[in-house]
Fold this protein.
Amino acid sequence: MKRIKKKRFWASCFCFMAFFFLLTTFQVVVELGRSKQLTSKNSVSQKNAFREDEFQKYPPLFFKRPKLDHSAGKKLHRGTYPVLLWWSPLTGESGRQAQCGEDVCFFTINRTYQHNPLTKAFLFYGTDFSIHSLPLPRAGYHDWALFHEESPKNNYKLFQPPAITLFNHTATFSRHSHLPLTTQYLESIEALRSLRYTVSLQKKNSLRKRLAPLVYVQSDCDPPSDRDSYVKELMAHIEIDSYGACLHNRDLPDHLRNPSSMDSDSFYKILAQYKFVLAFENSVCGDYITEKLWRPLKLGVVPVYYGAPTIQDWLPSNKSAILVTDFPHPKDLAQYIKGLDADDKEYVAYLEWKLKGDISNRQLLAVIKERTWGVQDIMKDNYIDAFECMVCTRVWENIKRQAKGMPPRRWKAEANHLSCPSPQAFAFSPLSAQRSVLQDVWKSSFEQSKREARALRHLVERNRNFTALEFWTLVFRD
């Protein structure tokens, strides 16, 4: 019997490795195809580069045309502003003139501006950053700026030092970036203090007759954090209601089965009935904190959190969440939660900050107060606008320095502006051994991303266009 199980295990290993090989091969083929499609497009766009006077086609949007001291920028013609070109369809804007304090910049996704002398910076969105088309050659006055607020699994190579340090300006979830987006999923301190959805302990205890103590809602299954593996093991030791596609064992009402309903009052009211929410991120990365944490805190439910190793720096109080990493095994966590479930006084201790509106984390309070952008706040710019204005202001700073005969200031991204450890699988029992094989796919992808980042840096520093074939040849070179 043991021999049969061993054969099955190794057969599973072989299948997953074969899957990873096919996935990598497919990725290479897709990149090569994209490269061929874009070759002709790029050549056409270079021939049709806009003249400077074509800026006048775009009237100012939402802003009065300011009076600027054009003598500050000797290379700027009267009536025109520095161009910041989005190398991504993210904003969808063919031309927009925006004011950032006293400075004005022209933002566009129109790549025909690539070779225009007024183009000072290229803005990239990390999720759709691709090697098959980059604005090369890169002039000495061309800044590269990266906006990336999403999970590292979307583009692992950008999380490696050779790649992230290619950029001059960054806006990422890391507190170390030039524009930190760590609190991007928290609209305000008031939302944390609010008791709008809070269910009384007496009612929660009554609801325990039909509800599990823990709730889990995930439909992105088997991500790099290996959260489903942990929750599956945890289910062997304590009851968990799982509404999502991952480890599903309980159905939501029909009107809440659409993913768009995850931010509805009706869904919030269901979650608020529980005592504990399993808040597991899809990736483990410093300062990568999503609604997984903030949602239960806003609803008056105790989050059982796994994700950012830096999470204690961001919690509203020292006793507002249960950290998975504090327990050697899921059965130990289960035992602890059972104890809290049976002891009202100990359980309420985790909600005391909420009930009193007492947020003791000074760093969290300061970051929310000082950030230049808002979340669902019509009185503030959103974080994309803030990112654009950060780059615009820095571009103008160098224009003014040049006018005074001073050397330009050079900004540079550091490795900690976007950095994550290699994905690791949980290995707490024999039950997880076979599941950990799936994690090899994520781990292999992460390891390959190191080679991709080195290849990318080499080709960009060569400072001329390159093909996908050149890139992949360099990646897989021994």
